Amino acid sequence: MTKKVVILLLLFLVIAIIVMLKEPNGDGNVREGVPLEVSSDTETIVSLLFELAEKGQTINSPFIVGETTIQKVHELWGDPERKSENASAIYEEFLSNDASVGHRSEVVFDIRSSSPEIQQIHLEDIKSIKGEPDKIRSYQDDQVDQTILIYDVTKNIQLKWILPKPTQENPNPVVHHISVFTEIEESVSLSDLSLEEKVGQMIFAGIKGTVITNETKKIISTHQVGGIILFKDNLKNADQSVSLLNSIKEENIKNKVPLFLGVDEEGGRVARLPDLTKLPTSEYLGKQNDAALSYNIGKLLGKELSAFGFNLDFAPVLDINSNPDNPIIGDRSFGTDAEIVSKLGLQLMKGIQSEQVISVVKHFPGHGDTAVDSHKELPIIQKSLADLHALELIPFTRAIEQGVEVIMMGHILLPKIDSTYPASISKVIITDVLREQLDYEGVIITDDMTMKAILNNFEISEAAVSAVKAGNDIVLVAHDYANVKKVKEAILQAIEAGEITEQRIDESVKRVLAIKKKYNLSNKQLDGVNIQELNQSINETLGR
Fold first, then answer.
1. Apex CA 431: angle with CA 316 and CA 420, to 5°?
2. Which burial class, exposed, middle or buried, applies to 461 when counting CB atoms under 10 A from its CB (0-12, 13-18, 19+)?
3. Per-residue DSSP letter, 429
């Protein structure tokens, strides 16, 4: 063999090795360490799928998520070959079209396609053409172990790529199917809810722990409460807090109504959110007497809460700090002047609302003149209704005039008005004064029914029933699963015994559903919270 022939053979061998390394394995996977070369056909189909998704559509389908009705799908594609239903949606499979369609309230919100063109695309093709996804999730059951790449193609539409989870043996799997998805505004009415579900909507529950527990799952799935309140013990750092709230929302997906997710975030010493720069006290704001500053602080509170995944803030305090010996209000109040408390408190409320977060003003009819802490014992105030109108009720009256949406009742005994029941469970104060005299039509919630002001004087089941009879729309049970269970059972038993009518329940649940709809509450998951950005906003607002 000549030297020239040997050189040519070696050259051919090198070329063959290079070509072999660039080609996929027999199992469809690119060899590790070798850059992926995307064919023009693959790039075209991936780009087309993204373009269609931006319009709410997918390949080989004329339907648009969020617009097309399931009746239209049936007109064009006929009856589905398979159909499945869960608590929140119906999915129909159209095998001859390589598609399945999810719908809720007759509107299509999810179109999934497994067409042959899609099943030729690999994991690395997608990333190479469109970059890293906005989110990566996983799903596993007895049949599948999947990775889900999620791209936010518009503000309201996601394109999801569902593939087998990459493994060492198969690091670059092919796509199983895609999903073009949008959130659907589902309007739940009273007729959609059972009596048990309606009573659940009237309970706002506290939970234990920094991760979702079996008890919490029961509170949400079995007792179907309307809201969850978190405290400092539940919130250790920003990432953990978002993760916990995401877990709570995920557990609630099977329920018909989204949850209130609330926290006491007032600024000053009553601040639960971790890792954030502290906002000033209401007392400080009162001394500044600057309406614009109070509004901006409220806006910051709303922005913080929304960023973590909350949708309700138990703030501001509208109590007037008229008693210097008050152990519970103090610097949580805007001050001793009713006009300043009214002006600044309502600006803070409006700031919170501007960020699509519900503001709960507290503690009606006024906790400012108490000498004891209602967490430990029942405060008693020897004031008449006329006395209250002259001072304590002024901020609340102004709030009602300016459209306050939720008012929290205080655990305060006013013997000159009602000698038996504290304001929080008093029909005289809630129905006669707040509803009828002050003409308030919004939501009313009790303060925490596990505080000593209540438990030292009433059994919690009895107190909960009294709270509903008095006119509260929501009963707050901030501690212990056993208490949540007792409260729900007691209200249901009172209805069965004829002590409370279902019509009375319906009045409250209508208000609850209306405000949840107004604020567009949902089970939408968050990816995380940008603490640095929030702290920068705080420092800018405070001029630091």
1. 95
2. middle
3. I
The encoded tokens of residue 7 equal: 């050189």
Q: Which tokens go with 287?
A: 């001394």
Active site residue 506: no
Buried b or exposed e, range 122-156, using 16+ CB within 10 angstroms: bbbbbebbbeebeeeeeeeeeeeebbbbbbebeee
Q: Read off the pLDDT of residues 200-231 as tens digits, 9 standing for 90 and up.
A: 999 999 999 999 999 999 999 999 999 999 99
How large is the average pLDDT for residues 294-317? 97
Cα(226)–Cα(305) distance, integer angstroms:
18
Q: pLDDT above 70 covers what percent of the chain?
A: 91
Residue 447 falls in the annotated catalytic set? yes
How does pLDDT run across 340-373, given as a tens digit for each residue? 999 999 999 999 999 999 999 999 999 877 767 7
Closest CA to 177 of 127, 121, 136: 121
Q: Which of 74, 176, 375, 389 is catalytic?
A: 375
Tokens of 509: 């649940």
Which contacts qualify for 212-219: CB closer than 8 Å, 24 or more apart?
A: 212/244, 212/247, 212/248, 212/251, 215/481, 216/248, 216/251, 217/251, 218/481, 219/481, 219/484
Selected catalytic residue, list 125, 313, 319, 447 = 447
Which whole number is the average pLDDT over 109-119? 94
What does the pLDDT average to over 291-301?
Answer: 97
